[in-house]
Structures are given as C-alpha cells and as structure tokens.
Design brief:
Length: 281
C-alpha cells in the first residue's frame, strides 16, 4: 500500500489505472478508523479494482468551539487498518496541501443543510461539501463510499453529485453498531464508562420509535416526545434535536408515511453523538 501526501502523487498513481479502464473506489475519512470505516473499505474492495482511502481531519467542517484540536489522529493505526483491508493507496495530505492561504472558493448545498445537524453546526456542511469536492477532483473515482450514520451528509453529498454532474456513483453503507447497539463513532473514545452506558439511550430510543411505528403509531410529535423522555431519563444531556424527516428531502414530517429518517443528536458530557434509523410506511 502506498501512503500519498500530495495531489500530484495521487494523480500520478491513478493515471495508469484510469488509462487501463480500472474501476476506482474512494473512501473519504477523517481517520480514527473503526469497524464502520472498515465496512466501507470492504465494500469498495469488493466492487473496485483500485481502492483509495483519504485520511484528512478537515478543519473547515469544525466550528470555533468544536473538537478539531482534540480529534483523534492515530495515523499509524489507521494505515495498518488500511493495509489489512487491502487498500491500494492512503491519501494523507497536510492541511496546506488541501487549502492554500489564498483559497477563495467553497461549495455549498442549499436547503438540505438547513435542518438537523446543519441548524446546530453553522458552516459544517459547506466544509464537508468543499473538501469532498476537492477529493473527488483529486481522485476522480468511479464510486465513493459513505456511511449511513452521517445520514444528512450522505443525502447532501448525493445531491451535490447530482447537481454538479459528477460522474460518480455514491454508495451509502449501513450503520455498524457495537453488540449493545451503540453506533460506532470516532468520538466514542471521549466517553467515560458511565457516559458510554448512558449513550445506549440513543439507539434504545430509536428502537422504541421503530416498534411504535410497526405497531401503528404515525404521529410525529408523539414519537419524538417519547424518544426525548427516554433519552433524558438515562442521565444529564443536551438534546440538539430529535426529528423525523423525509429520508430523501430532509423536510420535517407531521405523520410517518413513505420513507422517513428518524434522526437525533445528543451531547453527553463533552461528546456530541448522532444516530438514526430509516422506517418505511
């Protein structure tokens, strides 16, 4: 496996593969790889001739009071995980390779970024779509892989690819969970043992909502209030949102019908956790 740090190195590596018509897969990550990331890599490895994983903690998607400085960066462990999964190249650029001091261009997606996490993290999705656009232009993959845990991100990226006419297939892979239901996240390392136990209330609330929908409940207010009660009963926390929205348009729903995304974001201690499920009625 190659470790590449510059745009020129990536393009030089991929040029003969592209010329030979090989299928190139990209897995964009911020590192601190866990089993969820590895599931994306395995999906890429199974479907593509060449697999590139980007490892870049993107500063422009962090707010001024967020955890950019503290975000875990176990690069050697990440490279070892990539090697174990058969990755062909890991792209690990320094910040100055991705953002020149004179940079004056961003990419933003309207409407889909206004609710859910977008309402609580101003500028976050512009940072995401800008860096993903850069990665798409650098790697020019045939297919790119994202995780369902970041459901709003996946919808936003899919819309960006459609609107800007990128010739790239977007694959969204299922959430990977611990045996007790906690969604895997690089930020889980921030949780104390007590907070880790409390965090199970998120997936438990989502499962409760799924059961209520299966039993016939359709009122969104009833479902979201029940979820909030279960989360707050587990311990002190700050709920950013508990929402039920259209799974494709991310517009709020009054009743559960069609494909609905049930999503939540909760701060436990210093850790912001997100989780979601999709239900179809």
């Amino acid at each position: 496996m190659l470790k590449l740090q510059t745009v020129a190195e990536v393009r030089s590596f991929l040029q003969p593969h592209r010329a030979a018509g090989r299928r190139i897969g990209l897995v964009p990550t911020m590192g601190a790889l866990h089993e969820g990331h590895r599931s994306l890599i395995r999906a890429a490895r199974a479907a593509c001739d060449v697999v590139v994983v980007s490892i870049f903690v993107n500063p422009t998607q962090f707010g001024p009071n967020e955890d950019y400085a503290a975000y875990p960066r176990p690069l050697e462990d990440d490279l070892a995980a990539c090697r174990a999964e058969g990755v062909d190249a890991a792209f690990c650029p320094p910040v100055e390779e991705m953002y020149s001091p004179q940079a004056a261009t961003t990419v933003s997606v309207a409407r889909l970024t206004e609710g859910l996490c977008g309402a609580h993290r101003p500028g976050h999705f512009t940072g995401v779509t800008t860096v993903v656009t850069k990665l798409f232009n650098i790697v020019q993959p045939n297919v790119a892989y994202f995780g369902q845990k970041d459901a709003q991100q996946a919808v936003v990226i899919r819309k960006m690819v459609h609107d800007l006419m990128f010739p790239i297939e977007i694959v969204t892979c299922p959430i990977v969970r611990e045996a007790d239901g906690l969604a895997l996240s690089s930020r889980n390392v921030y949780l104390s043992p007590a907070e880790r136990r409390q965090a199970l209330s998120l997936s438990q609330a989502l499962n409760w909502a799924r059961e209520q929908v299966a039993a016939g409940e359709r009122n969104v207010a009833t479902l979201t209030e029940g979820m909030r009660q279960r989360i707050t009963a587990a311990g002190p926390c700050v709920i950013d949102y508990v929402s039920i929205v259209d799974a494709d348009e991310l517009t709020p729903k009054q009743r559960v019908e069609g494909n609905c995304l049930i999503a939540l974001a909760v701060r436990i201690g210093r850790t912001r956790l997100i989780d979601n499920i999709v239900v179809s009625v």
